[in-house]
Design goal:
Distance between the termini: 18 Å
Number of domains: 1
Order of helices and strands: EEEEHEEEEEE
Structural class: mainly beta
Shape: globular
Low-confidence stretches: none
Largest sheet: 8 strands, antiparallel
Length: 196
C-alpha cells in the first residue's frame, strides 16, 4: 500500500454536546449534518485551541507459562475511554457541568416571593455525581466524524484562572461508563473503509 498524503486528517472544526443520560435520552445513531445538535442535546460552545482529546485505553496483564520465557497471551484487566476539553464559554450548561450543581434564582423575602435576578449555585460537601451522555462532532470539509458516549461522568476538573489578560476556562475530563457492554461508538463518512 502506497503512502497517501490525502489520507492525513485534521479537525479544524467541531462541537461538543451533552444531555442527561438515562430514560428520555436517546444517543444519536446517525452522523448528523455537522452543524446541528442531536435531538435533546445542548452545545457546550467554544473549546480552547487545544481542541478535544479522545483517549481510548486498555490495561492488560501478561499471562506467563512454564514452557515460555515470554507471555503466552494478555488478559484485559480494564478498559476506559475519556474525553478531555477546556471549554471557553461561560453559560448555564458549562458552568453547571464544571461546578457540579444547578443555578437557582434567589427569591425575595417578601410575603409573596419574586425572583431577584440573582442566581445561586450551591457547592455540596457531598456532591451528587450525575450521569450524562456526550457527543463530539468534528469535521474537515465534507468529511465528518462523530463520537457518541451514551453514559459518562465527569472524573476531573481543572482550576479556573481569573485573570485580566485571559478569559475564564472550564477544563473537564469525562469518562465513559459501561453501556450494555460498550463504552461508545464512532461514526464517519470518511472513505477509510474499503467497500465490498
Amino acid at each position: 500500500m502506497a503512502n497517501d498524503a490525502k489520507k492525513i486528517r485534521f479537525a479544524p472544526n467541531g462541537a461538543i454536546y451533552v444531555a442527561p443520560a438515562g430514560p428520555g435520552s436517546t444517543p444519536p445513531v446517525t452522523l448528523g449534518d455537522g452543524l446541528t445538535a442531536p435531538a435533546g442535546y445542548k452545545a457546550l460552545g467554544y473549546v480552547d485551541e487545544g481542541g478535544v482529546t479522545l483517549t481510548p485505553a486498555i490495561e492488560t496483564q501478561p499471562v506467563a507459562a512454564w514452557q515460555s520465557a515470554t507471555a503466552v497471551l494478555y488478559n484485559v484487566t480494564s478498559a476506559s475511554f475519556s474525553v478531555k476539553a477546556t471549554l471557553q464559554e461561560t453559560n448555564e450548561v458549562t458552568t453547571e457541568l464544571f461546578w457540579g450543581a444547578e443555578w437557582v434564582e434567589v427569591m425575595s423575602a417578601d410575603p409573596t416571593p419574586v425572583g431577584t435576578g440573582v442566581f445561586r449555585l450551591d457547592l455540596s460537601s457531598t456532591p451528587d455525581l450525575k450521569e450524562l451522555s456526550l457527543v463530539v462532532d468534528w469535521n474537515e470539509g465534507s468529511i465528518r466524524s462523530r463520537c457518541v458516549i451514551p453514559r459518562a461522568m465527569i472524573s476531573d476538573r481543572g482550576a479556573i484562572q481569573l485573570s485580566r489578560k485571559e478569559n475564564g476556562k472550564y477544563e473537564l475530563t469525562i469518562e465513559a461508563l459501561d453501556s450494555n457492554g460498550k463504552l461508545g461508538y464512532v461514526l464517519t463518512n470518511d472513505d477509510i473503509v474499503a467497500t465490498p
